[in-house]
């Protein structure tokens, strides 16, 4: 009986440790960035691991009133590509931050902790 109680306390300690590490890892996500481009480099978007757009660079040649629709499409494409590209970096960062706290469970996705 006492063994189970000790196991339970140990598990609760691990969960607290996991929560602390996840919080720290989430705070660090702002330092992870990814830049993607569209239009052959005419539009560049940089996002961070907290899924925020932090920089947008638009080539001067694209800024013409009659090209507004194309410019909007290129911006959307660059931003979406940057978000797609940063996803694996976020997962890798969170896995590394929680390494050794929980057993490695295949398929365990910790990104749910981020919301």
TrEMBL record:
Xref: InterPro entries: YbaB-like_sf (IPR036894), YbaB/EbfC (IPR004401)
SUPFAM superfamilies associated with the record: YbaB-like (SSF82607)
UniProt keywords, alphabetically: Coiled coil, Cytoplasm, DNA-binding
Coiled-coil regions, chain positions: 8-35
Highest rank taxon of the organism: Bacteria
A Pfam short name: YbaB_DNA_bd
Subcellular location(s) per record: Cytoplasm, Nucleoid
Family the entry assigns: Belongs to the YbaB/EbfC family.
Function, as annotated: Binds to DNA and alters its conformation. May be involved in regulation of gene expression, nucleoid organization and DNA protection.
HAMAP family from the UniProt entry: DNA_YbaB_EbfC
Subunit structure: Homodimer.
NCBIfam families: DNA_YbaB_EbfC (TIGR00103)
Designated name of the protein: Nucleoid-associated protein DYBT9623_03731
Taxonomic lineage of the native organism: Bacteria, Pseudomonadati, Bacteroidota, Cytophagia, Cytophagales
Gene name for this UniProt entry: ybaB
């Amino acid at each position: 009986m006492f063994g189970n109680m000790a196991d339970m306390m140990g598990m609760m300690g691990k969960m607290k440790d996991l929560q602390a590490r996840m919080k720290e890892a989430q705070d660090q996500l702002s330092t992870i960035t990814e830049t993607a481009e569209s239009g052959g480099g005419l539009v560049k978007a940089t996002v961070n691991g907290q899924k925020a757009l932090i920089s947008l660079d638009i080539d001067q040649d694209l800024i013409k009133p009659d090209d507004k629709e194309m410019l909007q499409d290129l911006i959307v494409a660059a931003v979406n590509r940057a978000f797609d590209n940063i996803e694996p970096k976020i997962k890798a960062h969170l896995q590394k931050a929680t390494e050794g706290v929980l057993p490695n469970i295949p398929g365990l996705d910790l990104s749910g902790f981020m919301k």
